[in-house]
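Deviations from the work plan: none for this task. Representative record:
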Amino acid sequence: MHDKTIAELAADLRDGKVSSVELTGHYLRRIESLDNRLNSLITVTAEQALETARAADAARARGEAGPLTGVPIVHKDIFCTDGVRTSCGSRMLDNFISPYDAGVVERFKAAGCPVLGKTNMDEFAMGSSNETSYYGPVNNPWDTQRVPGGSSGGSAAAVAARLAPGATGTDTGGSIRQPAALTGITGLKPTYGRVSRWGMIAFASSLDQGGPMARTAEDCGLMLNVMAGFDERDSTSLERPAEDFNARLNTTLKGLRIGLPREFFGEGMDPGVARVIDEAIDFYKKLGAEFVEVALPHSGLSVPVYYVVAPAECSSNLARFDGVRYGYRCEDPKDLMDLYMRSRGEGFGPEVQRRIMVGTYALSAGYFDAYYLKAQKIRRLIADDFRQAFEQVDVILAPTTPTTAFRLGEKTADPVTMYLSDVYTIAVNLAGLPAMSLPAGFSQGLPVGMQLIGNYFDEARLLGVAHQYQLGTEWHQMAPAGFE
Amino acid sequence: MSLSQEQVKKIAHLARLNVREEDLDTYARTLSDILDFVEQMEGVDTEGVEPMAHPLALSQRLRADAPTEPDRRAHFQRIAPAVEDGLYLVPRVIE
Amino acid sequence: MEWETVIGLEIHAQLSTKSKIFSGASTAYGAEPNTQACAVDLGLPGVLPVLNREAVGMAVRFGLAIGAPIAPRSIFARKNYFYPDLPKGYQISQYELPVVGRGQVEIELEDGESRTIGVTRAHLEEDAGKSLHEDYHGMTGVDLNRAGTPLLEIVSEPDMRSAREAVAYMKKIHALVRYLEICDGNMQEGSFRCDANVSVRRKGTEKFGTRAEIKNLNSFRFLERAINFEVERQIDILEGGGAVVQETRLFDPDKGETRSMRSKEEANDYRYFPDPDLLPLDIEPAFIEQVRGSLPELPDEKKHRFMSDHGLSAYDAGVLTASREMAEYFEQVAAAVEGQAKLAANWVMGELAGALNREGREITDSPVSAEALGGLLRRIQDNTISGKIAKEVFEAMWAGEGDADQVIEHKGLKQITDTGAIEQVIDQVIADNPSQLEQYRSGKDKLFGFFVGQVMKRTGGKANPAQVNDLLKQKLS
């Protein structure tokens, strides 16, 4: 049952082959027996999930079921869930029972999807390995000595290990695509503004974007159909007509112009990754796609730009965690300053503190122009590079990550090395473009992800390009040993 | 760009983060590494480039002026560390 | 040594929207603590701001009223600092690109002169909550009802040279925001308050002295007293050979002095940057024109119209247009006594203002309505009563004894204009005072007044004074 995709499960539910209660119970049992090897979930919400499942079955019986009614999912613990702990992977919010639902959570509720639990993540989504979580690291199901990537590491591991057919994630600098690549699943970061940020705990507001993580492109499209849409509570939410993101799954790729950015194929890329990507290019050629080399000359600066912009925004976004209205408060503060200093000093982990400090510094008097303003200018140059590239091509293809999953602890001592694992994903966030990662093969037994980057609002085309690949390949069907 | 422990202390204070003495050295080293790393930006000619604060060139949407939020004090204060008479309590503020 | 005072004001006017600037919580004053603080106002994780259209419209109204350009694009920025009444750890404000650009207002001084004061800019921002320092077991209580209330911060040029000018300017802005109906102007409730930047310099020098910023002044009187104290303090320091320290100070109304606010003295580094949760505010010309079309007549326009239409002095016109309500009241009274606007002005600024002042009432809850006062003045105009009797009638009207005609009728105050009746009284008075008559006729002109007084006394003040004069002159000659 758990080897089926969301599309297949939805069909089985529709055809009465299985009930949502059975399906939900099955996944809950898998979580109970297998997640001790992964630590992919921070909170399991079995009772609520079964309750939703019963309601979903009842709705179906009344003929009121939607496309995903009854399909269980998991939410990244960055999405606020009314009445359920929403920790954001932090000690700061370990005691935070959210008093409201995120826009994305409301939408999945309305769609009738039982929520199995909240997934582990890097603290406040700051990390590329899921090792900064207050709840401990998540293990990669392909090799439990290795990281699943981050920050949506729990969501990625849960989907890869078939503990849930789909998960929500968020992507600020690669946090959906990088873990999707490292765990062999499919993940989509939509155009900035597609998915409401209401109730999605902010890391870097101008970069954060929620998106689906599942095993196939088709499943990501089904989930995106639920997730995306205008939300008047989010000033940056896009007002666009409703769209079926799976409308172009079967569009032929003949004549499709695919761009290869030469900057993404340089040194630093693991040869095993390079080989897999080459094979994918050959595959697309066979489907009739044309390849064009494109230049993204400023993309090499995306990591430094990102590590100014994101920390600057986070230093301000995380100022609300002060021990006054909710969240962690230190013991016996002796005065107001002590309350702030210790609540924040004890409530946040080292990586979060490091980024807050970088951001505080970059915005402070005398440094603003050299760091923040400079970064925002280069950010425009990076976005302009993409604009020009998309005048020549329909989609851009690149590796998602330079290497496969690394070992736990391998990069924790050196933040900059860790940051460079997002070298291929970050530029997309700076520009606000949609992009996805899909499994394209293996290198030494570990999954390799291929990244497809689309023009603004071009999710449907991206999903079609990915789906055509998945029709002809089996990488997305591979299950890690022990989790089949 | 190398940050001293003193500078780290100052930044940490501005950000209201209580950094333990024994961690100052690590922070000074890693923060300096990060600042060194981002200094690559310096070499880029950005003359005349307009800073980009948002991915999409859109305008702020305006909301109708109507009170829509009911009183949910009890609900919101259930998760508060310290409240009395409906007020959030903090250590004495001196002006 | 002669010193010159330099003052600039930052006025915070709470905009009278129904909901907050970035959330749908109510802005009504006086609710139970934290019952009007919604998820956005509390800064819960994941919440986001959406801008209130009305707040923007109100800022535009103000901008147009002071002749300032409205920015086609303005930006909201975050001002970062930690304080318990600031839930998000930053205040959403406007920094580099404010919605209202440079404008000006005219102030009237008591010597009848006018001065122009420059307004540097006005920008939209959110108010903070309130810290209540009553003792909660040695703790401070925080009420966030006010957090997120829209504010228009109106920043002046350092154009004022005395506390009186500063007060006149603040009053002018106060009148303006109330004319525009964008702020209720209630200073007790903190809807209208200001920070004053005060410095002194030697007369004749160009360079500004070091300034102190006096925070949170919420009455015109406090503003005046605080500035006067601060000027003295700074001059004392400078004359003693010392240097003024740039700092934030607080006015203590009980002691009548300003003191340093040490809590705010920590190096302020607000780390402003554009708020990534809000997009640029683009204001279309059509929106501006729509607002322009809805503007009422503004105080200065009204003032100049009062001067030209009613022949009032600049000072009178300034006083009468100080508030929209006062101006409306005056215009109603003036309409009742056409051609005698000065009479109307004198009564509104004299008897009426005096009575209101005595009882601490606003003109809007005056027991004598504009219509009733107009009725009274009409009776002076048509000689039914004298100006002196009118004061008596006014007192009775104030006490609720009816309208002017009722009071005149009831008290029998109708003026005697019957020549025969007046002559009769005069004859009696002359007959009863032969010695005074003799003295008068022998050249003691001053006694004329005595005869007038006697006649008025015997008629209970009701005789028409002009007629009494004329008839007495005839009879005594």
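The mean pLDDT of chain C is 92.
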